[in-house]
Amino acid sequence: MDDTLIDIGEVARQSGLAASALRFYERKGLIQAEGRNGLRRAYRPETLERLALITCARDAGFTLAEIAEFLRAKPSDATLRERMAAKEREVSERVAQLTRLRDSLRHAVTCDHDPLIECPEFKQAVRRVSA
Amino acid sequence: MDDTLIDIGEVARQSGLAASALRFYERKGLIQAEGRNGLRRAYRPETLERLALITCARDAGFTLAEIAEFLRAKPSDATLRERMAAKEREVSERVAQLTRLRDSLRHAVTCDHDPLIECPEFKQAVRRVSA
DNA sequence: CTGCTACTTGAAGTGCGGTTCAAGTCAAGG
DNA sequence: CCTTGACTTGAACCGCACTTCAAGTAGCAG
């Protein structure tokens, strides 16, 4: 076997993902094993980078189906660019929303209103977050 | 019946939540009806504010169980303050992460690397996001 | 050879956040 | 009175992202 390939167990350790998750991702078409070491899946080293990207995108709120689509798309794909641009706007909006929420939480931590939900400043903040 | 109370259908319309979701929230202890109009749940107007808060927190990534806990806690509750402070840090971190992801997406939109995942700048960006 | 470990498979199970369904009930309108 | 429509209930179902399980297998040590 090509010893540049990495066993699933090792990929799991290095990526921090469970082996079951890797197999799950394979079924979803997100990654693929290059070969087998006996029964064991063997992956190319680049797979680790791919997994980092997947984890990153997943953490950002992409569904696995979306990620799979992104990974399949060609860079020349205009649709892909548009979708990425759309996602960029979405993420920007989310950043703004979370920033407002953070401010709201910051206030809440030191506010003494009882109940907290009645605090005018807090109510204002909540309205801003959901706006 | 107290005509300051609002029927579930009206609350659903005004909050933008499905009536089924409102009942679900009630089972989870997030809200409660003040009375009934026949069979119909009737809510106090403040419930709308409470729902805005719930929606806001849920959108921010709190689980419903967490939100329920927050809502039950007293403002004098030191644990609550600590938890909110912790959540504030969590949200701050998430804002930072999403900001990096946004930058990474911004680059990706205009980058011509094929495959995109091989672009050094993009790889850098992904590493920054997951760091 | 035996025993062990780390994997293999498909299928079922989990937790979250709900929605949908069937059967029933209430209040109002005609 | 009967119909209509918006609600009621518990239970079942949904999609997502996995995990867990049972039964089996490859490779290696002794």
In short:
The first copy, chain A, is mainly alpha-helical. Chain A is built from six helices and three strands.
- Uncertain stretches of chain A: none
Q: Main sheet of chain A: which strands, in order across?
A: 1-3-2
**Pair with the biggest interface:** A-B, 45 and 45 residues
Oligomer: homodimer
- Compressed to H and E, one letter per element, the order of chain A equals EHHEEHHHH
Overall mean pLDDT of chain A:
87
Q: What is the percentage of strand-forming residues of chain A?
A: 5-15%
**Structural class designation of chain A:** mainly alpha
Largest sheet of chain A: 3 strands, antiparallel
Shape of chain A: elongated
Counted by DSSP, the helix tally of chain A is: 6
Helix proportion of chain A: 55-70%
Distance between the termini of chain A: 57 Å
The overall strand count of chain A is 3
Radius of gyration of chain A: 21 Å
Detailed description of the structure:
Two copies of one chain form a homodimer. Helix content of chain A is 64%, strand content 7%. Chain A is built from six helices and three strands. The first copy, chain A, has helices at residues 8-15, 19-27, 46-59, 64-72, 78-110, 120-130, and strands at 6-7, 35-37, 40-43. The first copy, chain A, has a three-stranded antiparallel beta sheet with strand order 1-3-2. In chain A, helix 5 (78-110) packs antiparallel against helix 6. The first copy, chain A, is elongated, with a radius of gyration of 21 Å. Chain A starts with 5 loop residues before the first strand and ends with a helix. The model of chain A has no long low-confidence stretch (mean pLDDT 87). The A-B interface holds A 46, 49-50, 52-53, 55-57, 59-60, 71, 74-76, 81, 84-85, 87-88, 91-92, 94-95, 97-99, 101-102, 104-106, 108-109, 111-117, 123, 126-127, 129-130 and B 46, 49-50, 52-53, 55-57, 59-60, 71, 74-76, 81, 84-85, 87-88, 91-92, 94-95, 97-99, 101-102, 104-106, 108-109, 111-117, 123, 126-127, 129-130. The structure holds a DNA duplex (30 and 30 nucleotides).
